[in-house]
Design a protein that fits this description.
CATH architecture of one domain in chain A: Orthogonal Bundle
Number of strands of chain A: 0
Radius of gyration of chain A: 24 Å
Order of helices and strands of chain A: HHHHHHHHHHHHHHHH
Largest interface: A-B, 52 and 49 residues
Radius of gyration of chain B: 25 Å
Helix content of chain B: 55-70%
Helix content of chain A: over 70%
Distance between the termini of chain A: 11 Å
Oligomer: heterodimer
Strand content of chain A: under 5%
Largest sheet of chain B: none
Number of helices of chain B: 12
Number of strands of chain B: 0
Structural class of chain A: mainly alpha
CATH superfamily of one domain in chain B: MetI-like
CATH architecture of one domain in chain B: Orthogonal Bundle
CATH class of one domain in chain A: Mainly Alpha
Shape of chain A: globular
Strand content of chain B: under 5%
Order of helices and strands of chain B: HHHHHHHHHHHH
Distance between the termini of chain B: 45 Å
Number of helices of chain A: 16
Largest sheet of chain A: none
CATH class of one domain in chain B: Mainly Alpha
């Protein structure tokens, strides 16, 4: 198992390099002189020269690529043109929100997706099955931002003044603010990786409120997370339900299931021990692939619910032509996606011992 | 003792049909393909006859109407003296129904244009990689792997960031991120066909690589290309709507569904109809391609379909 994990980790290296190359090239493809693009109106020949010298744009292109990669490996993503602060800080500030949303959506979509898929496979061709599958088809065809807006309308306006009311926007009820853990714990002079990690924890509303034992804030944070998670999770839910159903149906037709039934095993154990164990692999694959969908959905949905995550930051950075931020956020999201797929690969090996030996 | 062989009646001999006819028959019998085709035909008809169906010019500003007023349908009891607006009036005093109708043209074009682009470019890349092989194959396919390492919409957003917002750039971005799938399909079928006897034979007869590609490889790649392409159109329409929603795609006053949603997202509480109808339109169109894609997959590969319905 350890050998398998190590090999997989080593295989990640070329992918990371590829991601960095692509993001490097993308930013270089911006039409026009990098200096006038980056400095905008203020670009004078002298300023341009100073700018190029400062960012090493006069060097050989290979040198530039290597330097870019080395910098990122050391956690230096450059400086935001708009805010004049390190891009890493922007990432530490925005990433936790997107993670919380993605994880919330993932919990929602896998729990209900597998459950619905299981029920429709077992109750094949009944009303439940047909409804679920029609629902799944509609689910994968909805624009996630539209679903988000509709949910906001229903739960915040139609159910207003009932117990079903759920807030439609923001991370916390206005008036509640997130304390900085660095200030709270007297760790303001941290640098580098520890500072980044503390920033991530501190900006994660859920972790922050848990660590400061602020359960009112925790409740508020979870409450605000419900609608966005439902919106982002619905499409993956539909896909997972379909996958669970078809893979379970495939397996239920196998000989060993008949054997299990023939030897008098109760149906619950046939499903749980014999069928589901083999159905997991395609389901896990789909969950891994859906991580990308979840991340993309999070980016679109943050705008709808006014959440301070990577998506809103990316959108603002693009419209403000803040390229270092665009570049940094793209790299971070791509790496997250790749790591999620790595976790899926590792879980295969756990679920199916044959894969470890390949 | 009479050892009579029972005579076969004429009806018992199954009629032989060409595979194409068989496929089309299977497609028309497939439940979800039926629904998909009906929905798609409906949308295409709307797109073709948009000028006839739409009561107003989609970009015309109706000065006499109140902005964001609710739908007024005479049949549903809206007073006769008011002018009829099936989906209400948008934030710029335009007739929403006309805009949604015209939007179908745009979204259909977006879907077909991006996927055609992706299939052509992906096909060329896949064919080069498969036929020439060696280092070129390695470089091209690793590049495709890297493109697949990005969540597609996010890569499209990054590309738009570089090219600048706008409908044409958004389409180009979505086209680019769709390339890898088709490149893989074509490469795989080049590799599977390349060494077969009938291909070696036609190569020995002097067929050029291009001829081989068009006459031997492409027919084999056609099935997966059609299936993936149909499903790809659905994704492309959704992604394009997403980019426009974020303000990175179509620009005002183009009647694009995603943009219409984006423009009115803040009026969801006072004028929900302005958000509801464009989104519904996107959903129906995307649904039609998804259903049709599912049906095509089952119809073109009956072995798979039997497995699924077991």
């Amino acid at each position: 198992m350890l050998q398998f994990v190590t090999r997989r980790l080593l295989l990640l290296l070329p992918v990371f390099i590829g991601i960095l190359l692509v993001t490097f090239v993308i930013v270089r493809l911006i039409p026009g002189d990098p200096c006038s693009v980056m400095l905008g109106e203020r670009a004078t020949p002298e300023k341009c020269e100073a700018f190029k010298e400062r960012f090493g744009l006069n060097d050989n292109i290979v040198v530039q690529i290597v330097r870019y990669m080395v910098n990122i490996a050391q956690g230096d993503f450059g400086t935001s043109l708009r805010f004049g602060r390190p891009v890493v800080d922007v990432i530490a500030e925005r990433l936790p929100m997107t993670f919380e949303l993605t994880i919330g959506a993932m919990i929602f979509s896998t729990t209900f997706g597998i459950l619905l898929g299981l029920v429709s496979a077992l109750k094949r061709n009944t009303v439940i099955d047909v409804t679920t599958m029609i629902g799944a088809n509609i689910g994968i065809s909805m624009p996630v931002f539209w679903l988000g807006l509709m949910l906001a309308y229903v739960f915040a306006l139609v159910f207003k003044d009932t117990f079903l009311y759920i807030p439609p926007s923001g991370r916390l009820t206005s008036g509640i603010s997130l304390p900085s853990l660095a200030t709270l714990w007297g760790l303001s002079d941290l640098q580098g990786l520890p500072k980044f990690l503390l920033g991530l924890v501190s900006n994660s509303t859920i972790l922050n409120s848990l660590l400061t034992a602020n359960f009112l804030m925790l409740r508020d944070a979870l409450w605000h997370l419900i609608l966005p998670s439902l919106a982002v999770g619905t499409i993956p839910l539909a896909v997972i339900a379909r996958m669970t159903r078809s893979s379970l149906l495939d397996i239920l037709g196998q000989d060993y299931i008949r054997t299990a039934r023939a030897k008098g095993l109760i149906e619950r154990l046939v499903i749980a021990r014999h069928a589901m164990r083999n159905a997991w692999i395609p389901i896990v694959t789909i969950i891994g692939l859906e991580t990308g969908q979840l991340l993309a959905g999070a980016v679109l949905t943050e705008t709808v619910f006014a959440l301070p995550g990577v998506g809103t930051a990316l959108k603002d950075a693009i419209l403000a032509r803040d390229y270092p931020v665009v570049q940094g956020l793209t790299v971070v999201i791509a790496i997250t996606f790749v790591v999620a797929n790595l976790l899926v690969d590792i879980s295969y090996a756990y679920l199916d011992p044959r894969i470890r030996l390949e | 003792m009479e050892n009579a062989i029972p005579k076969l009646s004429a009806e018992a001999i199954p009629e032989r049909r060409s595979p194409t006819v068989e496929t089309i028959r299977r497609l028309f019998r497939h439940r979800s393909a039926q629904v998909g085709m009906i929905l798609l035909a409906f949308m295409i008809l709307i797109a073709i006859f948009a000028p006839v169906i739409a009561p107003y010019d989609p970009v015309a500003i109706l000065k006499e109407e109140t902005r964001r007023s609710a739908p007024c349908i005479h049949l549903l009891g809206c007073p006769q003296e008011q002018t009829q607006h099936l989906m209400g009036i948008d934030g710029n005093s335009r007739d929403l129904f006309s805009r949604v109708i015209y939007g179908s043209r745009l979204s259909l074009q977006i879907g077909f244009v991006t996927i055609t682009f992706a299939i052509i470019i992906g096909g060329i890349i896949g064919a080069l990689a498969g036929f020439i092989g060696g280092w070129l194959d390695n470089i091209l396919m690793r590049l495709m792997d890297v493109l697949l390492a990005f969540p597609s919409l996010l890569l499209a957003i990054a590309i738009v960031a570089v090219l600048g917002p706008g409908l044409r750039n958004a389409l180009l971005a979505i086209g680019i991120v769709s390339i890898p799938i088709y490149a893989r399909i074509v490469r795989a079928s080049v590799l599977s066909v390349k060494e077969l006897d009938f291909v070696s034979a036609s190569r020995a007869l002097g067929a050029s690589k291009l001829q081989l590609l068009l006459t031997k490889v492409m027919p084999n790649a056609l099935t997966p290309l059609i299936v993936r392409g149909t499903l790809g159109i659905a994704t492309a329409i959704l992604d394009a709507a997403g980019l426009s929603f974020l303000g990175l795609g179509a620009e005002k006053p183009i009647p694009e569904w995603g943009l219409m949603l984006g423009e009115e997202r803040n009026s969801i509480f006072n004028a929900p109809h302005l958000v509801f109808f464009p989104g519904l339109a996107i959903m129906i169109l995307v649904l039609s391609f998804n259903l049709l894609g599912d049906g095509l997959r089952d119809a073109l590969d009956p072995r798979l379909a039997q497995n699924r319905s077991k």
